[in-house]
Amino acid sequence: MSATVALHDVAKSYRAVRALRGVSFELAPGRISALVGHNGAGKTTLIKLMLGLIQPDRGTIRVLGEDPAAGAFAGRRALGFLPENVAFNAALTGKETLAFYARLKGINPRDGAALLDRVGLGEASRRRVGTYSKGMRQRLGLAQALLGWPRVLLLDEPTTGLDPALRQSFYDILDELRRDGATVLISSHALHELEDRAEQVLIMNQGSLVADGTLAELRALSRLPIRMTLKLAEHVARPDWIPNHAALRGGACEVDIIDPSDKMRLLRKAAADPAVQDIVVTEPTLDELYAHFLRAQEQAA
């Protein structure tokens, strides 16, 4: 499967500030990827480079097989982008705003009406944008990014200001795009939202890419413990197969597992023991993985 976005040894500085330090990665079609990192880690610079708004000091960038900074970049109409802070002409209505962007992309303005309905702005489409709340402006920005059903969609903090129902609708739209073969990159601090949705995670710190892989791959690399919680029946002795280092809390044993092979061994024993009433297995979260890889980079420096 050929990459739709490919960066190789990309570096970028703003005077004395080294925003990116030799970053390389690929984004595949039909995949939702997460770009995570603290403020100043280089995420926004990466997105600007992929959009062709700025050029790297070193390295190569290809989006849909072309240099996005080239003046004749034909793939620009196949790109969608939602910035963290959207800004629209307050005097235009939502419908007029989307029609304006549709014309810029060479798309029939009428195609935007369905998108306004999809993001929950159908009834407000004839209101001036100046009367919109922050969440409504964010939804309008999302509709703008989705014009033309893009092949590459770059989103910077896309769920800011969205209520839970609209947030779920937003991710439903992304799943449709992914199934249609689009490449979706989400830059966000809401790691809990991305945990079950991102098929690739890129972790940035101080301009460097410190981790790149699926959640399963990052968990294996980190060797962070898996926590198994075993709820025991009342008034039973602690089974002797439970490791000595397990902590007993409120009638449940908590076991931290480092070696993945131990997980299946303990699960088989727990399932066969009538003293065990419930089993909960908790893998390292994306928040924990993020903190781990940042610490590892800082310790190696």
From TrEMBL:
UniProt keyword terms in alphabetical order: ATP-binding, Nucleotide-binding, Transport
Molecular-function annotations in GO: ATP binding; ATP hydrolysis activity
Source superkingdom: Bacteria
Span of domain ABC transporter: 5-231
Classification via Gene3D superfamilies: P-loop containing nucleotide triphosphate hydrolases
CDD domains: ABC_DR_subfamily_A (cd03230)
Listed Pfam families: ABC_tran
Similarity comment text for this entry: Belongs to the ABC transporter superfamily.
Job of this protein: Involved in beta-(1-->2)glucan export. Transmembrane domains (TMD) form a pore in the inner membrane and the ATP-binding domain (NBD) is responsible for energy generation.
Entry protein name: Cu-processing system ATP-binding protein
Organism from which the protein derives: Rhodopseudomonas faecalis
